[in-house]
Amino acid sequence: MDKTILEMQHITKEFPGVRALDDVCFSVTDKEIHCLVGENGAGKSTLMKVLSGVYPHGDYEGEIIFNGTVQKYSNISDSKKAGIAIIYQELALIPELTVYENIFLGHEIKSGLVIDWNETIQKATQMLKKVGLDVNPTVKVKELGLGKQQLIEIAKALSVDVKLLILDEPTSALNETDSENLMKLLRDLKKHGVTSVLISHKLKEVIGIADRVTVLRDGRTICTLDAQKGEVSENILIKHMVGREINNVYPKRKSTIVDANVFEVKDWHVYDPKVGREILKNINLNVRKGEIVSLAGLMGSGRTELALSLFGNPRKYRVNGEMVVSGKQVHLTHPEHAIKAGLAYVTEDRKGNGLILIQDIKQNITLANLRAIAENGVVNSNEEVVASKEYKNSLNIKTPSIEQKVLNLSGGNQQKVSVAKWLFVHPQILILDEPTRGIDVGAKYEIYMIMNKLVEQGMSIIMISSELPEILGMSDRIYVVSSGRIAGELSANEATQERIMQLATD
Amino acid sequence: MAFIKNVQKTIKENIRDYGMFIALFAIMIFFTITTKGIFISPRNISNLVNQTGYIAVLAVGMTLVIVIRHIDLSVGFLAGFMGAISAIAMVSWHLPVGVVIPLVLILGILAGLLTAFLVAKLGIPAFVASLAGWLIYRGALLLVTLKTGTIIIPNATYNAIGNGYIPDIPDIGILPGAHKVTLLLGILAVIFFVIGEIKNREKKKAYDFEVSSMDMFIMKMIFVSALIMAVTWVLAGYNGLSWTFVIVLVVTLVYHFISTQTVLGRYIYAVGGNPEAAELSGINVKTITYIVFGSMGMLSALSGILYTSRLQSATTIAGQLFEMDAIAAAYVGGVSASGGVGRVTGSIIGAFVMMSLTSGMNLMTIDISSQYIVKGAVLAAAVIFDVATRNRSK
Fold it and tell me: Which residues contact A245 (CB under 8 A, 6 or more apart)?
């Protein structure tokens, strides 16, 4: 019974400048459900990519032993052949193809040179029965809901001879009924001899299903806990997940809060017609003058969507609710209006939708408020240089010249340009979405200093962050967002890593 | 020594900007030699300018369309159709030229806005939306010229747009044979250019900015002034400035100004560089799309007027393949298909490069089949050069 099916020994994987995995050991016994938990960036996905051959043998240190033999995969199809199937968060189904075409995509049943469609449909029906899904295999995948699509992914994985099924946050986009169905299916599959590894942020789910749990933190294995020995509980898991020391990297500031709301959101509901569900439910929050308010939570909890829905709603969600800026009720239908109302939004993805990489620093800084340096629609390029140089100096953007293309800057300096761009619109409320992601420690500290200076000058900041120490170190008040709703509000005094994590995984 | 270093540095830093200029220069010298000077003769250059006009204005509009990551295939037959409308307006409706031209330009804008509606509002890819326009305007052109076939235009004012030259003062004995108003305008242009540059430099100094060294500054002024004078001298040797030349010049200057100096221009390039970031910066991407396609429609109408006037008649196939010539000119001129990059002036140079090749090879009596192959190779080479220098600048 307790035969070890997978053994990953001393896995170390480095990216330029970062050690993503540091001497990680991970083993899975036959016919168990093994959960892998950890914060964002703990190394879970990287570990699974090593296992599946996305990072080929030689790209990492350490050994993978599967079914008793050492494996050296050079790509994904090698690991597939060995019997390892991975189902990612973003589903890999082709929406325009039918269910049966999707299930056998890549390993079509052929007679001679042509595909035997009748045989395919019949086999597909069997597979669907196996995963307990009652749909017609000839419908197109796009016509099915996410929960059913997830099951089809599993059917697809089962259609080849799979020994180890890995699911990377399968329930993050599912509603409760679909999640429960999926968990039931995993238990059923276990009875039929399929071993699963489940990566999940939802600790209740993990506690409900896991035989064993391995906790990763900062690229290291912290421990493996056994459910049968009663080692698995929410408190223990959270303690291991966040057990990091907070070192004193956060600059102090004197409290500058003026007790007057500059920003208020009431009964905010957001429906995304593209995914066909309500992504944010009944959000209520307020921000006072000179305050830093954080939105904590895990990736995918809906914080960026919330920021976008507040900032003029460029993604055209259907929004219901009330927003009050500086005592005035506003209805914003374009970022243009949001900027006019006094909002600014530094995006999470500075390369994707924050900056124009092929343009230079000064053009990026002035873009959102170009009219301030224009007369009758003609840009005064000299004023532009003056303004940009001011921000280059005050934010300490390291560059030989403001005519440098943003493309050529480091992540930290790009982030400063992004911040400068939004300071140039002189907002009252600055929304910072993951302001320190992917930048080095020194630049992080500088960003924190800038934030402190801004609130001291009377600006209010809403910070979205997935880094708990950052949230605890910088915020006056914290809202924890989980699955599209506010799971709790904490003052700086009562907030701890454990408390936040508990609410975020609720 | 420092001077030579400065020159080298300037050329190195701006090779991308001047590359096509140098290429045009090389092509002109090549044809001048191979045709024993006929190519550079005032008469040929004058014709060359007039032939390039209707493609050049299209290339200007197309530059901005490609900059915002779209394409407009309908411009050729739209130009042909608008030309035919102008002919009918004069011949059948007996409208005066002063009414016809604004009317046709406005119709062009409306046509452009219609394409923009399909693209921005309904989300149809520009390629498909404008391909539909290509078919529709082609049919419309045939429809309106069906009964009469070619429509001959008897209006001298209208026909002067594509064939006429600006008037000259009467011969007073000095410089016989040269067009004196043209020379005068050339000298005025040089004076304005020099004053503008000096003022600009003073302003920069007032802001305490770094300016290029004095010798480089003087070099640049001498070079550009000499170029302006050389072009005017050659043109003055035939009939002087043609109206087509004047129109192309005005269009180029206006569009160059808008695209480099105004808020609107900045917005256009921002939308091209990263539409999502532009939208989040408060720029209305849809509005920009309407403006750019609207301007493209207006320039298509202008191109139609230039062409119809040049032929002094509207034909059933007017405008055929203009869109391809305009797109080729824009790419030769350094526009990037991935958006956000490309200059109006570059596309004008691109148009002249392509037309110089046609003209030069015609003079050398090279077969039309080889001409296409050469032009195709030049287009490919220009884009390869562009991609290569872009990667290096990273």
Answer: none
How far apart (Å, rounded) are the C-alpha atoms in residues B361 and B116?
Answer: 38
Q: Residue A149 and residue A102: Cα distance in Å, rounded?
A: 10
Cβ count near B290 (within 10 Å): 19
Give dist(CA A219, CA A198) in Å, integer.
18
Query: CA of B270: how far to CAs of B278, B280, B288, B341, in Å?
Result: 6, 11, 10, 10
- Each residue's pLDDT expressed in tens, for chain A with a length of 506 residues: 478 899 999 999 887 666 789 999 999 999 899 999 887 778 888 898 899 888 988 889 999 999 888 888 988 888 888 889 888 877 788 988 999 999 998 888 888 889 999 999 999 999 898 888 888 999 998 888 878 888 898 888 888 888 899 998 887 767 777 888 889 989 988 888 889 999 987 888 899 999 999 999 888 898 999 988 888 888 888 888 877 655 557 888 887 788 889 999 999 999 998 878 899 999 999 999 999 999 998 877 899 999 999 999 999 999 999 999 999 999 999 999 999 999 999 998 888 899 999 999 999 999 999 999 999 999 999 999 999 999 999 998 988 889 989 988 888 889 999 999 999 999 999 999 999 887 777 788 889 999 999 999 999 999 999 888 889 999 999 999 998 999 999 999 999 988 998 898 87
Instruction: Using the 3D structure, point to which of A175, A209, A242 is the last residue of a domain.
Output: A242
User: Do A125 and A33 share a domain, yes or no?
Assistant: no
Here the CATH number for the domain that contains residue A199 is 3.40.50.300
Which of B301, B300, B305 has the alpha carbon at shortest distance from B326?
Answer: B300
Query: In 3D, which of B256, B307, B240 has the Cα closest to residue B75?
Result: B307
Give how far B354 is from chain A: nearest CA, Å: 28
Q: Write A7-10 long-range contacts (CB < 8 A, 24+).
A: A7/A63, A7/A64, A7/A65, A7/A66, A8/A47, A8/A50, A8/A51, A8/A62, A8/A63, A8/A64, A8/A65, A9/A62, A9/A63, A9/A64, A9/A65, A10/A61, A10/A62, A10/A63
- For the residues of A134-152, what is the DSSP string, one character each? ---TTSBGGGS-HHHHHHH
List residues in chain A touching B: CB distance below 8 A.
311-312, 314, 334-336, 338-340, 345, 347, 352-359, 363, 367-368, 370-371, 374, 377-379, 381-382, 385-386, 407-408, 421
Please indicate, yes or no, whether residues A77 and A169 belong to a single structural domain of this protein: yes
Non-local (6+) Cβ contacts of A429 within 8 A are A262, A263, A287, A325, A342, A343, A344, A459, A460, A461, A462
Residues of chain B with a CB closer than 8 angstroms to some CB in chain A? 203-204, 207, 209, 261-264, 266-267, 269-270, 273-274, 276-284, 340-341, 394
Helix (H, G, I), strand (E, B) or coil at A16: coil
Which residues have CB under 8 Å from A462's CB, separation 6+? A263, A287, A293, A294, A295, A307, A429, A430, A431, A432
Backbone angles phi, psi at A441, to 5 degrees: -60, -45
CATH (residue range B14-164+242-393) = 1.10.3470
Is A170 in the same domain as A157?
Answer: no
Q: Tell whether A401 and A308 lie within a shared domain.
A: no
Mutate to test the interface with A, among B281, B389, B394 (most CBs of A within 10 A): B281
Q: Please give the Cα distance from A408 to A360 (Å, whole number).
A: 9
Sketch the domain layout of chain B as residue ranges.
Answer: 14-164+242-393
Give the dihedral sign, CA A227/A229/A235/A236: negative
Looking at the fold, whether A337 and A263 belong to one and the same domain comes out as yes
Rg (CA), chain A: 25
Contact A150, A109 (CB under 8 A): no
Q: Of A406, A425, A444, which one is at a domain's C-terminal end?
A: A425
Query: Could you give phi then psi for residue A337, rounded to 5 degrees?
Result: -70, -40
Shared domain for A35 and A184, answered yes or no, is yes
